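Worked Example 4.2. Read the sequence first, then its structure tokens.
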Amino acid sequence: MSLAPIGIHPATHITQDPSTMDTEALEHLNLTVADLDATLAFLQAALPTWQVRGEGRLDWHGKAIRWLHVGTPSCYIALQGGGEGEAPDWTGHAIGARHAGLRVPSLDAVVQRLALAGHAVDHPGGTHPHRRSVYYTLPGALQFEFVEYLSDDPAQRNDYAR
């Protein structure tokens, strides 16, 4: 098994803010998708400040695949192309991820940008006075939830009793 990267192209213009390196945080999520370019276009339409941090090709257990990292200086989604089969059914009960939740400053702006890119909301999130969300399901990829918080108070944002 060879996992040595082939043709890595790191992004040299992205720098990490050293003040964020001393706290625990989700650094990245790795997703295997059927169509790498379509998933990248979707994410960059929704989150236009996200950049490709690095990309390349590698042999993944006998299959040549293309990969890339897209995100911010402090977090990213690792996308791995060459996915096979069906994406998980978010309504099912199989073990595995249901969706990736991404915090955004303006849910309306995300919905508008994705509509212009040809994507329709799959379904809205629940009703809550301190947050709003919508879900999008891409063929051959994980479902994505975009969340806008309407409060700076963590107790209000994380109130699940409503």
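Now turn to a second chain, presented in exactly the same format:
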Amino acid sequence: MALSMPTCRELTTRAATADDREWFRSAHHHAYRDLVKRQYGAWVEADQDRFFAHKWTSSKYEIVLCDSTPCGYVFVEDRPRDIHIAEIVIIPEFQARGIGTLLLTRVIDRARDSSVPVRLRTAHANRAAALYRRLGFREVGTTATHLLFEWAPQPHRPDPDVEVQSGPC
């Protein structure tokens, strides 16, 4: 019998600060270790430390909190023509609880309200690709290492059951 993980009663985010750096490094390494092994064959701690140090800046990230407990982080950019999800990470202990779905749904709702697409990329070996597809993202390209996804708002279609009158009222 499979055990179901409890969901969060409250899912919030807060701005990251410089004091969060070590937590982010640990969360990054914890969340990416299996993915890196699946896609590249080996986890080299020094390489991952360098990769993390290169991309880390607290001003870009938000910490995701499940009932006030840090469980991941996100970096979402609102750009003029789209919303770009640069990174969304949920640490393994909190995966399969609907957290990623809720975060992505919030971004999709913002995009729908603004009539812009949502774009992201993910490693070929990332199991989250199935989640993106389930939420309506479609694969729009590939690179040697990544899949490129886009969610686009649907144009408004008139309801076929509503009669549209033309002419003077």
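Notes for the reader: The first strand starts at residue 11 and ends at 15. The chain has a mean pLDDT of 87.
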